[in-house]
Amino acid sequence: MTYAIGVDLGGTKTAAGVVSAAGEVLYSETIPTLNRDGGEAILDATAALVSSLISKAQAGGLDVAGVGVGSAGVIDTARGVVVSATDAILGWAGTELTGGLAVRLGLDPAAVQAVNDVHAHALGEAWAGAAAGTASSLLVAFGTGVGGSFVLNGRPVLGNRYAGGHVGHFASPYAYHRGKPLPCVCGGAGHVEAVASGPAVLQSYVRLGGKETAVDARGVFALAGAGNAVAAGAVDWGASAAGQAVGGLANILDPEVIVVSGGLSDAGAPWWHPMERALRAELLPALSGLPVLPAKLGNAAAIVGAARLVLSAPSTPPLS
Fold this sequence. Notes:
alpha/beta; single chain; five-stranded mixed sheet
């Protein structure tokens, strides 16, 4: 059996694992992302992490075919370059991701592949998670931000400029307060992310006049669970905005299944029920039976999806 290294390179941590051709993570390790030290330092640390896992795999007699990376930022998958990135990782934009790792690891450049981390997440769920066995799936993740990916016939739809999947950045009628659009982190206003992300739930609680202290969305959910009506209203508002947005995307894309992921979805029924109710209210009649499922792989999804980039590529000899 052939194996691959999958890497989930995010703004705060970088996780990697040895993944089998069946989508099973055998070994994994996590390190902090050096998000203030620039692209070269991040590549050095990531290469060391990957090298450790390759050695561990080879010591166990496993043939490793290559390295797949799911990375924060807009990733030009053809060139393996970070096209753009937020300040969550300083100096990341412009980094030659796959080429830099290949040189550091002494690999053929073709043995290293990369894609945006949310696309990797969706690919993992489509291959070995909640959407396994489907021909098309739409994954939308609601957490610190809002992102998504449409996987069609085993491949994420990346877009002409590799910016596909920015599903948090289209207009939402929920993203208004007193007739004015809410500012979005992208520089626009009135977008889904401005009302349906984790930070937006906290902001909604404050705008609605919440008096009890909450420092993040988790705190708002705790207050809601304790009977705080303002907190419950903030959770319901954000969840409804999320559901309406996903329902609208489903009307456009008509996926076989929808997978909903991210920290907010992990909050359970108080978020999930208003989200799914708003989603189904938005659907065209032809989509009324569309399955809406929670993600299955958790933190391993992007590692599995990144490895799939290599394991689904044309056959290559194992790394020596």
